[in-house]
Amino acid sequence: MSGPVTDTRDLFAAVPRSDFDTPGKSRGLIDVVRWRYLLNLLVRTGVTTRYRNSVLGWTWSYVRPAAQFLVFWVVLGIFMDLDRGLPNYAVYLFSGIVMINLFSEGFKNATSSIVGNAALVRKVFLPRQLFAVSAVIVAFVHFLPQVGLLLIVCLLMGWIAHVSIVSILAILAGMIIVMVFSLGLGLFFGAVNVRFRDAENIVELMLLLATWASPVLYAWTQVQDAIVDRLGWPQWIVELYMLNPITQGVELFHYAFWRPATEGMVTASGYVGKALIDIPPGLAWNTLWTFLIAVGTLLFGQFVFRRLEGRFAQDL
Amino acid sequence: MSEQTTIKPSIIIDGVKKRFTLNHAFSLKDTVVSWIKRRKLTSQFEALKGVDITIGEGESVAILGFNGSGKSTLLKLISGVMEPDDGEVLTRGRVAGLIEVGAGFHPELSGRENVFLNAAILGMKKHEIEARYDEIVAFSEIEQFIDQEVKHYSSGMFMRLAFSVAIHVELDVLLVDEILSVGDAPFREKCRLKFEELIAEGKTLVVVSHDMEMVRELCTRGIVINKGEVVYDGEVEGAISLVDA
User: Fold this and answer.
1) What is the pLDDT of residue B180?
2) Partner-chain residue, chosen from B91, B97, B117, that has the shortest CB–CB distance to A20
3) Considering only CB atoms, which chain A residues are within 8 Å of B76?
4) Which of A2, A307, A314, A315 to mutate to test the interface with B (most CBs of B within 10 A)?
5) SS (HEC) of B2-45
6) Which of A153, A193, B135, B161 is deepest in the core (most CB within 10 A)?
7) CB atoms within 10 A of CB A210
């Protein structure tokens, strides 16, 4: 070293050590609250630019789930006769699909959010969690019109006569659980994705399975029948299956939308189809457990994210 | 080091080392092949080999050196984009970087929206941006295009707006990396005046540039880095003659 030899005692002679900051130190998700104005702008940018230069614009937010719904309804409901076992199968299907869409959108966008903002991550220091959080919020904004559509259909079927305050709470709980869960997974895979782009493919695979691993197209009672009665496997496998936060989100939406909308139809005189399926046992308790699982996932994702964050700029 | 006690440091770089790991194998197949051939999978590259620099409040310092000497890495460590492997970097006050301005610009948004988005990315609060908005737009001289989408801007207009946002950020320490070649001659002159204004206000300036004229005009102290080590620290003229030679 030919430069001057600096003595550490000299460095803080004029200004105490506590006046200095270490650049690049992040406080994790707490920073997101401090940078909420930027978060707000990022969300607005994500929402407004999504359908720029497309003629149909926001209509695409309806077209995709509508096509998905139509395929499932025709193939599973009509061709495979699943709708005989489940009254009002169309609404049952749709209330599950919107939940899966919320999860898929949020999870997928959060995973690619760091790599997608590579130019910024490499050059400017800002809390990188912001990108993942804004990705999940943008997914939520796109989820709202789908819920709106679902609500309109339910209202036409007499949903309002059978709905209770618990149903409203179930809607909120379902959305919160699924969003927290997708943010947690998104933070984890988003951080890993910087170094190993395999993460994006793993996520695609997980999303493919997510639709089938939850009672969206079928009823939870069919899982119970298959595992316990037909295969003779222990009951705890079913309980494990129900502890999937997405399954819980889907069940909460069934409880809040499909059940009240169908009750009038089933109890009407002269109705000949199947009765309503049972509410899953422990739906209330599972809400708490799956919420804790989702929060645990978030803490874990956040932990991994913060461990890897320091290397983002050089790995991108 | 008697002057050390009188100046108040703004940036302290204490024994900082930065290594980069270069991967030679990019996939599982590569890994297996090079493992069989007993080739090394990675190699280490030391960009900074123990750098000690103290920059006082109100100083304007030029960091000079040839390409690949570690100048930009040093600036990235000060801005917090990267973390040192060894040693410590400390800063005091708000640090803002004119490091490749325009990185946060969204082509689909209008100039106005981009001003707000970028200023927020650089850490400004909403009321601060609103207070300075007119000043930012006036400085960029593109008032009449401000509501157009940025993708329709010429590259000159784009850089002017981006630069204008970055220079108006509320700051105590400004890091400048090779962006002084913005726009035409009159605009460059305007930028130089703005820098002088910041120096006069007592802001700390750290400049990385190959533009010796600009460096001579703005900076009083020069630091030359070669292969990750400080080889000169003193008067700016001495530093320039060392690099220009």
Assistant:
1) 59
2) B91
3) 313
4) A314
5) CHHHCCCEEEEEEEEEEEEEEECCCCHHHHHHHHHCCCCCEEEE
6) B161
7) 18
**Could you tell me which residues come within 8 angstroms of residue A215 by beta carbon, excluding any fewer than 6 positions away?**
A96, A222, A223, A247, A250, A251, A254
- Side-by-side strand order, sheet with B86-91: B42-56, B9-23, B86-91
- The sheet with strand B221-226 has its strands ordered as B95-99, B173-177, B204-208, B60-64, B221-226, B229-235
Q: What confidence score (pLDDT) does residue A309 get?
A: 87
Reported for A7-16, long-range contacts at CB under 8 A and 24+ positions apart, including other chains, are A7/B1, A8/B14, A10/B1, A10/B4, A10/B5, A11/B4, A11/B9, A11/B12, A11/B14, A11/B54, A13/B4, A13/B5, A14/B5, A14/B6, A14/B7, A14/B8, A14/B9, A15/B8, A15/B9, A15/B92
> Exposure of B202 by Cβ count < 10 A (0-12 exposed, 13-18 middle, 19+ buried)?
exposed
Considering only CA atoms, give the Rg of chain A: 24
Structure tokens at A118: 């590579």
Q: Within 10 Å of residue A215's Cβ, how many Cβ atoms?
A: 23
pTM of the model: 0.87
Residues recorded for chain A: 316
Distance from CA of B46 to the nearest CA of A (A): 13
**CA dist., res. B64 & res. B57, Å (int):** 20
Closest alpha carbon within chain B to A13: B5
Cα–Cα distance, A74 to A81 (Å, whole number) = 9
Q: What are the pLDDT digits (tens) for A230-288?
A: 888 898 899 999 999 999 999 999 999 999 888 877 777 777 777 778 888 888 999 99
DSSP state of B149: B
Taking the C-alpha atoms of residue A105 and residue A145, their distance in angstroms, rounded to an integer, is 14
Residue B201: is it exposed, middle or buried by C-beta count within 10 angstroms (0-12/13-18/19+)? Answer: exposed
| B164 min Cα distance to partner chain A (Å) | 16
Please give the Cα distance from B9 to B4 (Å, whole number): 8
Rounded (10°) CA dihedral A181, A178, A245, A149: -160
**B17: which strand partners?**
B49, B86
Nearest to A108 by CA among A25, A196, A210: A210
CB B87 within 8 A of CB B130: no
ipTM given for this complex: 0.83
Where chain A has pLDDT below 70, the residues are: 1-10, 83-84
Residues with Cβ within 8 Å of residue B205, at least 6 apart in sequence: B59, B60, B61, B173, B174, B176, B195, B198, B199, B218, B219
- Helix, strand, coil shares of chain B, percent, nearest 5, are 40, 30, 30
Cα–chain center distance at A170? 15
* Residue B132, helix vs strand vs coil: helix
Candidates A4, A20, A24; nearest CB to B80: A24
What's the CA gap between B133 and B115, in Å, rounded? 8
Q: What is the DSSP letter of A234?
A: -
Dihedral sign of CA atoms A119, A121, A126, A132 in order: positive
